[in-house]
């Protein structure tokens, strides 16, 4: 009886708290200061897209340069490369090629979108809660593609995320106390706080484990982990990705590798790798694959045993693509997805002579598509761990 009463009281406190703090949720707001007045001029409206972005660059040089090196600017370019690859004679999977050609315009919605706050997210500016409630019920939200080919080459650009057609939208999130309380992080709240990422990365949102994210960074903001920060903690607008240039090495990658622990079992002819995920707070996106190539070495670097661990979504995504692909499966090998429930995944490794095991080596390879051959992967990082026998 008392516990029921306590429940009701904590519910009341919870809801009054929510109603007090909700007016302060401010992740997207209009900013219409004089330095941005030029966006209303005809001169600006008549520029082609690339020139508009160059205009932003005149005052926001740092953001611009970092965007150019990151994933979003090249999103359309990568999509074109993909299409031309699957249509070349280097690639032989007719049903996949047909699907890419058929749904290309659909793909372009995420890879060269219309300005999100002018179109897809427009209603979120004034009626955020109602909008988000509806948005998260849609199975596959899709921004519309920019229609003219010449307008597409800037990929996902400043205007895609920051312009509603009249004003510049600021996306700075004011941190609240409730941001660091896992129980308060419903899908609705996480979407609200990262709304501009949702339309294209909704698969990731739907699986996020707030506890892991909060433990690592204090809140569930995508940019906490994915955006580079300068030495005083400000975002630089560089988003780490699988094609990082050498001068933009992502130290967070190593943390993923640090979660793989190796030990030799008492038989000495077997070892065990335990993946205890404390780093990735969400499942992987449908397309990409991370390969952990694990090797057990002796002190002269002779190979005693090895294991390939694949992290991908093949188990689920093949099912989703089965009908669109004319009842066919994508290629590639089934892998594991990141464990988010605190239960580690275990892998056996056969060893030729476990007594000599001294070094556990991990090579991390990134692939854009699990259904493409491993030879198209890029080696992102190599790490060595001592083995205590
Ligand atoms: C004439 C200079 C100038 C141009 C051109 C310019 N901005 Fe700004 N912008 C500023 C200044 C000044 C600020 C405020 C200081 C800051 O955050 O850097 C600002 C702030 C911003 C902010 C953050 C708003 C906030 O309140 O946190 C965004 C987003 C932004 N600009 C986007 C753009 C985009 C997109 C373009 C191109 C369409 C653009 N700006 C072009 C001068 C400019
Ligand atoms: C809902 C939005 C969305 C749609 C629709 C979409 N993509 Fe993507 N695409 C993404 C995201 C997000 C990524 C980044 C995933 C990652 O690497 O983690 C991506 C990555 C890619 C990449 C990898 C680029 C690289 O860096 O190598 C290719 C190629 C690609 N998509 C092709 C396609 C094709 C072909 C279609 C249509 C059949 C398509 N995409 C439809 C969101 C989308
Ligand atoms: C994928 C969406 C996206 C794109 C593309 C994008 N921004 Fe941003 N921008 C954001 C987010 C999110 C923030 C909030 C900053 C944070 O969370 O650290 C932001 C913040 C800003 C700010 C405020 C100061 C800062 O750096 O935090 C400025 C200025 C800005 N952006 C300018 C630009 C310009 C100029 C471009 C194009 C070169 C651009 N943005 C492209 C999402 C985007
Ligand atoms: C309009 C769709 C769109 C929006 C909005 C968007 N993304 Fe992306 N994102 C993509 C696509 C498409 C790619 C793949 C681009 C490529 O590889 O060329 C991508 C790539 C990425 C990657 C790199 C993945 C890799 O391959 O390593 C990260 C990280 C990322 N996005 C985070 C974010 C965050 C955080 C936000 C919100 C601030 C955001 N994105 C907003 C579509 C989008
Ligand atoms: C606590 C840190 C953290 C937070 C918060 C986080 N991620 Fe990630 N994310 C990771 C790590 C770690 C990886 C895997 C390492 C890598 O490849 O960079 C990853 C991988 C990715 C990738 C590339 C691989 C894939 O699965 O496609 C994308 C895209 C991505 N995250 C998007 C997001 C979005 C969108 C959000 C916000 C809803 C988010 N992440 C929140 C840590 C985080």
Walk me through what this model shows.
This protein has 389 residues and is α+β, with helices and mostly antiparallel strands. It folds into 2 domains: 26-241, no CATH class; 250-386, Immunoglobulin-like (Sandwich). 34% of the residues lie in helices and 17% in strands. The protein is built from 15 helices and 11 strands. It has helices spanning 2-21, 42-45, 49-59, 61-69, 75-86, 94-102, 104-111, 128-135, 158-162, 187-193, 198-205, 210-217, 222-226, 251-258, 314-322, and strands spanning 29-31, 168-170, 227-229, 235-239, 260-264, 270-275, 289-297, 303-311, 345-350, 359-367, 378-386. The protein has a 4-stranded antiparallel β-sheet with strand order 8-7-10-11, with helices on one face. Strand 3 (227-229) and strand 4 form a beta hairpin. Helix 5 (75-86) packs antiparallel against helix 7 (104-111). The longest helix is centred in the first third of the chain and has 20 residues, at 2-21. The termini are far apart. It binds heme C (HEC) (5 copies). Residues 71-72, 74-75, 78, 110-111, 113, 143, 156, 160, 196-197, 199-201, 222-223, 226, 239, 241-242, 288 line the site of one heme C.
- Spell the H/E element sequence: HEHHHHHHHHEHHHHEEHEEEEHEEE
The set of bound ligands, ions and cofactors reads:
heme C
Largest sheet at a glance?
4 strands, antiparallel
Number of helices: 15
Query: Roughly what percent helix?
Result: 25-40%
* Largest sheet: spatial strand order: 8-7-10-11
Mean pLDDT: 92
Gross morphology:
globular
Number of domains: 2
Beta-strand content bin:
15-25%
Weakly predicted, low-confidence segments: 15-24
CA gyration radius, whole angstroms: 24 Å
Termini separation comes to 55 Å
How does the helix and strand content classify structurally? alpha+beta
Total strands: the figure is 11
